[in-house]
Specification:
The chain has 6 helices and 7 strands. By secondary structure, it is of the alpha/beta class. It has one domain: Rossmann fold. The chain has a 7-stranded mixed beta sheet, with helices on one face. Helix 2 crosses helix 3. The N and C termini lie far apart (54 Å). It binds S-adenosylmethionine. The site of S-adenosylmethionine has 22 residues, from helix 1 and strand 2.
């Protein structure tokens, strides 16, 4: 009995370590957002009903879920960590949003973003540096990018919130990103 319990505890810690460690190597660690911050992000993004809203590194999917419920957008998420993929799919299922949001298990650096109207990114500077500027050529010219906490270095934002932690980029306003190392 004790052995089974020990194995379960061990498995739990291995899963937890996987959730925390794997994403660090691939791009960005996970940091769950408060509902208040999620609402701030959605308001700042000025999402319009029917828009395709992408979250690269979608975590538990709560930003996509809230955006879909409050602004009637169609959500697309890509997440490297299979456990967070399962968690977000479960939350989407219980929220009855399976026809509005799709979550893909995969690497955001290879993800097709050509259909996105708005891309939301909560990633580190290092991960953003890997995504930009190449991602700009794979996006619609009319697409908008929203970054939380970390700005895209050397890309001029069209709007910044008063707390200096939300950044909006319009591709129509210039696609030049200087190399940053
Ligand atoms: C700071 S969290 C943001 C989660 C979610 N977007 C949010 O705002 O609540 C970053 C997420 O990116 C995921 N991630 C890191 N590298 C990735 C990669 N290369 N491809 C897909 N997801 C990745 C992590 O697992 C983590 O869930």
């Amino acid at each position: 009995m004790l052995t089974i319990f020990s194995i379960l505890v061990l498995m739990f810690f291995i899963l937890l370590a996987g959730m925390a460690i794997i994403p660090v190597f691939f791009g960005a660690p996970w940091h769950p957002l408060s509902d208040e911050n999620i609402n701030r992000i959605i308001k700042f993004a000025s999402l319009r009903p029917g828009e395709k809203f992408y979250d690269l590194g979608s975590g538990d999917g709560r930003v996509l879920i809230a955006a879909s419920k409050k602004r009637f957008v169609r959500g697309v998420g890509v997440e490297i960590d299979p456990i967070k993929v399962l968690l977000s799919k479960y939350l989407i299922l219980t929220g009855k949003l399976t026809n509005k949001i799709s979550i893909h298990r995969g690497n955001m650096f290879d993800f097709d973003v050509s259909d996105a109207d708005v891309i939301y990114l909560y990633l580190t500077h290092q991960a953003l540096d890997r995504l930009f500027p190449e991602i700009l050529d794979r996006m619609k010219p009319s697409a908008r990018i929203i970054c939380y906490r970390f700005c895209v270095r050397n890309l001029e934002p069209a709007k910044i919130n008063k707390d200096n932690n939300l950044f909006l980029y319009n591709l129509t306003k210039g696609r030049t990103v200087n190399k940053y190392s």
